[in-house]
Design brief:
The protein is mainly α. The chain has 13 helices and no strands. Helices cover about 55% and strands about 0% of the residues. Helix 7 runs antiparallel to helix 10 and helix 9 packs antiparallel against helix 10. The radius of gyration is 48 Å and the shape is elongated.
């Protein structure tokens, strides 16, 4: 008697991974809904408010200096070694490699380039927006501050907003953005929020960033994640072009010419027919159905002399036929038989 083997947890995991032999058609692509637009506008307003509060050297700048003088790394030195490694979760290089490896595996399993292209688009937006803000505002960090109580703006620094914090929000938040189920999206959103929050506070603990840098970094990363649905059409077009290029290279390597696409027929404009057009078409049809007749001036048979033609008596004529009539020009002796007496 044959018994079925009990599946272990690892067997169930691999069996679940093999459920996607081809590209799934139910992938949910986030859209720029009204709720997302409102959240994007609120986050942008918060971003601009933080920048304004730092520029005018408000209470937020005083809070930055108070936290810096508190020196958290001296208050809790026992966690310093752990946080030195934890802050790596916000560095762009290591995190991009880890997340790209996972998304690359998903792209291979689902037969789509969207996960990798979305990651590339988000990192490109991150480098452009956060890098431009850093260089434009030029704020110095706590370790390089020159004047107590000042905002340290425009002095050639590059820490405002915090790149570690924004990178943690985008890199780990992209996993939640690309989640295929609502439950996975909720869990990954919570995990990415905790990781990015911890990375931001770790930079404040280590004294590499002001508190306002971290707050602005959270807002900058969230803006990128909220704006990604606007990039989805561009990502879809890029995927189509990359796959078409791959197919052309594969055909060229195999030595086969690509099959040209069938020409698209040009649609003929439809013109409604009037009653006059219908009558003309009917006359043309009747004329085409009639057999062609010979001209009336041509004889129906071969041409013969009038003397050779058989006389025809018209119908209703009193004149009897003359079968003994001979053709003109013949002799009477040849025409009439001789009778003897």
């Amino acid at each position: 008697m044959r018994t079925e083997r009990n599946l272990t947890r690892l067997d169930r995991v691999f069996a679940r991974l093999d459920r996607e032999p081809e590209r799934p058609a139910h992938i949910d692509v986030p859209r720029m809904s009204r709720h997302r637009i409102a959240l994007f506008a609120a986050t942008l307003a918060f971003y601009l408010a933080i920048v304004w509060l730092v520029v005018i050297t408000s209470w937020l700048v005083r809070l930055d200096w108070q936290v810096m003088f508190f020196r958290p790394y001296q208050q809790w030195p026992e966690i310093h070694a752990f946080l030195d490694y934890y802050v790596v979760l916000g560095q762009r290089g290591p995190t991009a490699v880890m997340v790209a490896a996972w998304l690359g595996w998903r792209s291979w399993r689902q037969h789509t380039l969207r996960p990798l292209l979305t990651l590339g688009a988000s990192l490109l937006l991150l480098n452009i927006t956060v890098g431009a803000a850093k260089l434009g505002m030029g704020r110095l960090g706590p370790h390089y501050a020159t004047t107590i109580g000042s905002n340290e703006m425009g002095l050639g620094g590059d820490i405002f907003p915090s790149g570690h914090t924004a990178n943690a929000v985008v890199t780990w938040g992209i996993l939640a953005y690309l989640a295929s189920t609502p439950r996975a999206r909720r869990w990954l959103s919570a995990v990415s929020a905790v990781v990015s929050l911890g990375v931001g506070l770790t930079t404040v603990y280590l004294g590499t960033h002001w508190l306002s840098d971290v707050v602005l970094g959270w807002a900058a990363g969230l803006l990128i994640l909220l704006a990604l649905p606007w990039c989805e059409p561009l990502i879809a077009r890029a995927e189509v072009r990359i796959l078409a290029l791959r197919d052309r290279l594969r055909d060229r390597r195999a030595g086969t010419a690509p099959v040209p696409a069938a020409p698209v027929p040009v649609p003929v404009p439809f013109t409604p027919r009037t009653a006059q057009d219908e009558a003309a078409a009917a006359r043309e049809t009747v004329a085409a159905a009639r057999p062609p007749r010979a001209p009336v001036y041509l004889a129906p048979g071969p041409h013969t002399a009038r003397s050779e033609r058989t006389p025809v008596t018209p119908v209703g004529s009193r004149r009897p036929p003359h079968p003994e009539r001979v053709p003109r020009g013949a002799t009477a002796s040849a025409a009439r038989p001789l009778t003897g007496g």
